[in-house]
UniProtKB/TrEMBL annotation:
Protein name: F-box domain-containing protein
SMART domains attached to this UniProt entry: FBOX
Cross-referenced Pfam families: F-box, FTH
Lineage: Eukaryota, Metazoa, Ecdysozoa, Nematoda, Chromadorea
Name of the encoding gene: Cnig_chr_V.g21368
Domain F-box: 1-54
Length: 282
């Protein structure tokens, strides 16, 4: 008697098309034949997971995914000590390859995502993972995976929290600029300073509607932020000419619904803040 895996490929494709994301992942773990068949399927033949938000965190010697389908439906997958926990089940993989398991799962999750995400969030904490994998290798592996995915991730908001600027470009360049509306960049300890001139050259930056930077920005060319309808930037210093430019910019740009540049002047424990509102008033 023929086994289910010996059924015609067209029949198996129809079966998988009727399953949801979790059911296909479960089927993928049944045997090597199912895993290979599902992994080789064209993305268009996989069901849409329809996630609203995907959150990837490397923190406290572990990696975790937060998958939000709706406000009332939330799934968490965690990886630590060489094991993966998902839907009440734990699998053991060994310390040496748990990072590879997590990245491979992230690739599978993104393959299932057909609709545009509301938010894609990454947090890269300064920790060392089990098996000797340093935290800076996590965004590198993610970047390699996104390149292998061979299509940009569609999300309206991209949020990256890190104390190392390198993951920002490694992730940003693989986000679909046509879908991206808001870029949120922040430091986990509030102390990071970063040069953003390279980010400003990307299509993602140029086509986004809003930018919010929760760290001190260096080498800022004010012309690179004039197209944003919502902008929050922290600077260490600013010239009188630049303040005058900011004052006039909202008046010149018709779609400038809100614009805010924060200037933090540190004098001991004292902070002074300047803002430019949508009416060009400083």
């Amino acid at each position: 008697m023929a086994t289910i895996i010996e059924m015609p490929e067209l029949v198996l494709e129809k079966v998988i098309a009727f399953l949801d994301f979790k059911a296909v992942l479960t089927l993928r773990q049944v045997c090597h034949d199912f895993r290979n068949f599902i992994d080789d399927l064209n993305d268009s033949k996989l069901p849409d997971s329809k996630f609203q938000e995907i959150k990837f965190v490397s923190d406290d010697r572990r990696i975790s995914f937060g998958l939000e389908e709706s406000k009332k439906r939330f799934t968490c997958i965690s990886y630590s000590k060489g094991q993966r926990s998902f839907c009440g089940k734990t699998e053991f993989f060994g310390y040496s390859n748990i990072l590879n398991v997590a990245v491979r799962d992230m690739e599978m999750i993104l393959k299932f995502q057909k609709t545009i995400l509301e938010r894609l969030q990454f947090e890269f904490h300064n920790v060392q993972l089990y098996g000797g994998s340093l935290v800076h290798t996590v965004p590198i592996k993610l970047s390699n995976m996104l390149q292998k995915l061979n299509r940009n991730v569609k999300t309206r908001t991209l949020s990256i929290k890190t104390n190392d600027p390198s993951p920002i470009m490694q992730i940003l360049r693989f986000v679909d600029p046509g879908a991206l509306k808001t870029i949120e960049l922040s430091s986990l300890d509030g102390k990071m300073e970063i040069e953003i001139d390279e980010f400003a050259k990307t299509e993602q930056w140029k086509k986004a509607d809003g930018i919010h930077c929760g760290f001190n920005v260096l080498n800022l060319n004010l012309e690179d932020i004039c197209h944003f309808s919502s902008c929050s930037i922290t600077l260490n210093s600013i010239t009188a000419q630049e303040l005058d430019f900011l004052r006039k910019t909202p008046q010149k740009t018709s779609d400038f619904s809100f614009f805010c540049v924060v200037l933090s002047l540190l004098h001991g424990l004292k902070n002074d803040f300047w803002t430019v509102d949508r009416y060009g008033k400083c």
